[in-house]
Amino acid sequence: MTQGSESVRFGKRTADTVLQRFEQWARDTPGAHALISGPESLTYGQLDEQADRLAHRLLASGLPPGGLVAVGTARQPELVVALLAALKAGGTYVVVDAETPLTGQRQLTAAEPFVLLTHLAHRAALDNGSGLKVIRLGAEAGGIAGQRGDQPAEQPDAPAPALPPAPAPGRSAALLFTGAAEPRAVPVSHGLLLAAHDSWAEVARLTPADRHLIAAGTDVTAFAAGWTRALCSGGTLVLPRRSPWKPEDIRAAVESEHVTVLHTDPATALDLLRGEEGPGTAYRSLRLLAVSGDRLYLDDQAALQVLLRPGARVLNVYGLAESAGIGAWFELPQLPRPLDDPEELSLLGTPFPGCRVEVRDGQIRLTPPGAGDAIPTGDLGLLREDGLLEFGGRFGDRVTLPGGRSVDPYPIESAIRSHEGIGSVIVNAVDSVRGPRRLVAYVAPPTGGSSSPVAPLPDVEELRGHLSGKVPREETPRTVIRLRALPRNRAGREDRAALPLPVLPAAVAKRSGGSSSGKYGAATAGEPFPASCAVGCAGGLGFVAFILTNLFWSGSTDLTGVPQPWAFLFTVLYLFECAAFGFGVLFLFGGRARMRSRGRGRRITAAAHVAVSYLLLAWWPQDNLYRLAAKQDWPRQAALVYTFNIPLMIAGAVVAAYLVAKPADPFDFDEDDD
Fold it and tell me: Which helix (H) or strand (E) holds 47?
């Protein structure tokens, strides 16, 4: 099955480029704001002039036609200057991550650029001594020195040397990195970069009045290719001053700069908008919220739509680096009717103008605008009867269980997500120390604040009950790990490689040759209380028990007439009973976690916890009651025996069983990451 979307715009394409589109705006509206970064800004004329100056420096460095220029800086305004300069000099640009030097170094190794544009502060971290040519940004690029209301700088007296002519549409304009763990650079031509912009502009209905904020990292496709959406349509790009966007900074910038188009990932979008006072109260300036980078479930998309003002649009955008970040898009008005179970569905909608989408053997294949070969995306999908494309998971997420059976986690995750307390979930297979690999569910509450109460995250037994009848029993996760939020990479995608592993009991870790702080993370629960605190708390509780003894059992500790040294010895006995009671209370409330780390099964651990607590707690009431009971009071003696003595024997047997029990598999535990 195939979806296609055509546009008259693609039937009348010219040979221009995104650079020429920007330069046309610089000529037509030189005084319009192009970049805003806090109190500073650059107009189109100033930005064009600074990019020209840096382009001449690149040419002076010997940059060959099509030469690759790497740009790595946390100063985003100067980064945009550098991207334009690379294109003006006839080169190809690639953005590397300057905020995470190890990632940036791997990206430089994968890209092999001719020259690196960076600041002195980033050079030492990015340049690993490979001999790569480096041009420092800053004074050389002119900086972002313009202030709001400035006019374009005057033209120099002497004309600068001519820059290279516009390249052919088929020549490479940029290298974009995919979201894979290992950097993989994808070449994008001038023609594709422009076609992607035109396609996006048609869907988003861009105007020069728009102010764009892209929350993604600069090396992510959403920014590395998305800057064209603002600067090729005459709009304004709102940027952070020096560091990546933080949620609180995005909130402030959207409101203070009257941002109209916000590009972000699902988790950030939900974090920004949830917790608002009511429908239509969030960010009155926004007319378009574009969400990409990861799956956006239908219920979350509907929640975002309600929170924005009436008439604002929420787009779920699906694309690849190979297609310059576009592919398919979905918004709620595309639905012909309401759908059941929106918390289990992620709809990708219809292709962008000029794109084609097909599902072959269950896999989504995407043809970028301007034709070309269909690109296997690695994602599963379904073309529904209503004509909409539905996301169905990822090939790379599939796991193999014992017996060679392959399991797709996405349907399981969707079924788990229908639990009212769960906002996001990942199901992963983790190798077990004492047996075959098991399925583990990582669950997190809904992202962002909420004024309405939210159900607590389920434990493993509750989850099994919830999945009964929805998921085959053999595909039900054996362990639940509850997290505050799922880990995500710079593109906003859930990062399965960064998930914590289940807590490995100390005994199992020792037997398997690992340490308690090895790859299984926090392998032991640790002592619930420091030793000094435990002794102090238990002593305090014992003292309280000693004071209350005569209140509960008047006369039970009366030693009148008892000669020495026996009176002293009996007093010491009373103190030990009270101290044992204090330690018992402390162990009852704080000993379970420590016992669980010993690696026994849940049931025997729970029984032993109660047994040890009883062995400590029982002496104080038992001895006091015995001392007040007459020897010939057979009913009371029998009651005391069956209330204390026999349970103490049973408790001792339970402790013995616990000590000889084999350590349990760590997957039998319901772990909490609080």
Answer: helix 44-60
What interhelical angle do 531-552 and 619-628 show, nearest 10?
A: 20
124 contact partners, CB below 8 Å, separation of at least 6: none
Could you give the CA distance from residue 289 to residue 36 in angstroms, rounded to a whole number? Answer: 19
Phi, psi of 102 (to 5 degrees): -65, -40
User: Per-residue pLDDT averaged across 129-133, rounded?
Assistant: 79
The pTM is what?
A: 0.73
**CA distance linking residue 513 with residue 527, whole number of Å:** 22
Question: Going by C-beta distance under 8 Å and a sequence separation of 6 or more, which residues neighbour residue 372?
Answer: none
Q: How many Å apart are CA 614 and CA 643, to the nearest integer?
A: 11
The pLDDT tens digits of the residues spanning 510-522 come to 444 444 334 433 3
DSSP string, 493-550: -B-GGGPPPPPPPHHHHHHTT--TTSTTSS-S---SS-HHHHHHHHHHHHHHHHHHHH
- H/E element, 578: helix 566-590
Task: Name the more confident of 424 and 154.
Answer: 424
Task: Give the C-alpha separation, 496 to 523, whole Å.
Answer: 20
Structure tokens at 428: 């992963």
Q: How far from each other are the two terminal CA atoms of the chain, in whole angstroms?
A: 46
> From the CB of residue 536, how many other CB atoms can be counted at a distance below 10 Å?
12
Q: Is 520 left (phi over 0), alpha (psi -120 to 50) or beta?
A: alpha
Contacts of the segment 607-612: beta carbons below 8 A, 24+ positions apart = 607/654, 607/657, 607/658, 608/654, 608/655, 608/657, 608/658, 610/651, 610/654, 611/650, 611/651, 611/652, 611/654, 611/655, 611/658, 612/587, 612/651, 612/655
Q: Residue length, the chain?
A: 674
Distance CA 175, CA 184 (A): 9
CA-CA-CA-CA torsion sign (57, 60, 61, 66): positive
What is the spatial distance between Cα 373 and Cα 189, in angstroms, rounded to a whole number? Answer: 14
Q: How far is CA 588 from CA 280, 578, 594, 595, in A?
A: 50, 15, 11, 11
In the chain, the amino acid numbered 185 is: A
Q: What is the pLDDT of residues 155-193, one digit of tens each?
A: 444 455 678 888 888 899 999 988 666 778 899 999 999
pLDDT of 451-505, one tens digit each? 444 567 888 888 889 999 899 988 899 889 989 889 988 778 888 888 887 764 4
Residue 629 makes CB contacts below 8 A (sequence gap 6+) with 636, 637, 640
Q: CB-based contacts of 516: which residues, under 8 Å, 6+ apart?
A: 504, 506, 509, 522, 523, 524
Query: Would you give the DSSP letter of residue 642?
Result: I
Instruction: Kindly state the DSSP code that residue 165 receives in the 8-state scheme.
Output: P
Q: How far apart are CA 594 and CA 664, in angstroms?
A: 15
- Cα–Cα distance for residue pair 532/526, rounded to 1 Å: 15
Burial of 382 (0-12, 13-18, 19+ CB in 10 A): middle
Task: Report how far residue 397's alpha carbon sits from residue 414's, in angstroms, rounded to the nearest whole number.
Answer: 14
**b/e string for 484-517 if b means 16 or more Cβ within 10 A?**
eebbbbbbbbbbbeebbbbbbbbbbbeeeebebe
Helices (H), 219-346: 221-224, 228-231, 247-256, 266-273, 298-307
Ramachandran angles phi, psi of 227, nearest 5°: -60, -25
Amino acid at 645: N
